[in-house]
Specification:
heterodimer, A: 116 residues, mainly beta, six-stranded mixed sheet, five-stranded antiparallel sheet, 0% helix, B: 113 residues, seven-stranded mixed sheet, four-stranded antiparallel sheet, 11 strands
Chain lengths: 116, 113
């Protein structure tokens, strides 16, 4: 059984704080690592897709890194704002999982709350 | 541009009643389609996926079934709901053969009483 773990489960920070979360995924037969942002009452929205060891991606104040050899990814948020409050999901894809391309294995997410 | 629709948005059903949730995608052809569920306190769990009309694969044994009667329509059903079927159901699509990001629908909140 392939498992994706995220930590912490929840996080409460003050506006302006920088924060980071961890995603651990199976390193064998790995294809891609996805980060999604899921706001309450909305659909999950893709942030990043990374495939290569050492990949770093950035979108505004949010960035992510990938280590495929040890099976982890970090998501960083610089200068958190109240609008960053959401659940951040990570998911990995593996060629042999589910017999189909593109099948994602999701973690349980990290719920971030940013207080003004 | 592509859009994905799900309905209904919310549903409250008694135990033992049937279920039908619908998902449709516009603006693309031959997508891979997915049904996920998030139960209370748990992560997103893949329930079914489909790579084409009439082709359904199930990831976990359960009380639910799925069908894909048309290229851009994906239906989740149950003959008799259980309390444990409560949760948030999301439909998603990705271009056929792609391993890129999936695009999610707005979801259906199902409460079984």
């Amino acid at each position: 059984i392939l498992n994706v773990e995220q930590s912490p489960q929840s996080l409460h920070v003050q506006e302006g704080d920088s924060t980071n979360f961890t995603c651990s995924f199976p390193s064998s037969n790995f294809y891609a690592l996805h980060w999604y942002r899921w706001e309450t009452a909305k659909s999950p929205e893709a942030l990043f897709v990374m495939t290569l060891n050492g990949d770093e991606k950035k979108k505004g104040r949010i960035s992510a890194t990938l280590n495929t050899k040890e099976g982890y990814s970090y998501l960083y948020i610089k200068g958190s704002q109240p609008e960053d409050s959401a659940t951040y999901l990570c998911a990995s894809t593996h060629p042999n999982y589910g017999g189909s391309q593109g099948n994602l294995i999701f973690g349980k997410g990290t719920k971030l709350s940013v207080k003004p | 541009s592509q859009t994905i629709h799900q309905w209904p948005a919310t549903l409250v059903q008694p135990v033992g009643s049937p279920l039908s949730l619908e998902c449709t995608v516009e603006g693309t052809s031959n997508p891979n389609l997915y049904w996920y569920r998030q139960a209370a306190g748990r992560g997103l769990q893949l329930l079914f996926y489909s790579v084409g009309i009439g082709q359904i694969s199930s990831e976990v044994p359960q009380n639910l079934s799925a069908s894909r009667p048309q290229d851009r329509q994906f239906i989740l059903s149950s003959k008799k709901l259980l309390l444990s079927d409560s949760g948030f159901y999301l439909c998603a699509w990705v271009p056929g053969g792609s391993r890129n990001e999936q695009f999610f629908g707005p979801g259906t909140r199902l409460t079984v009483l």
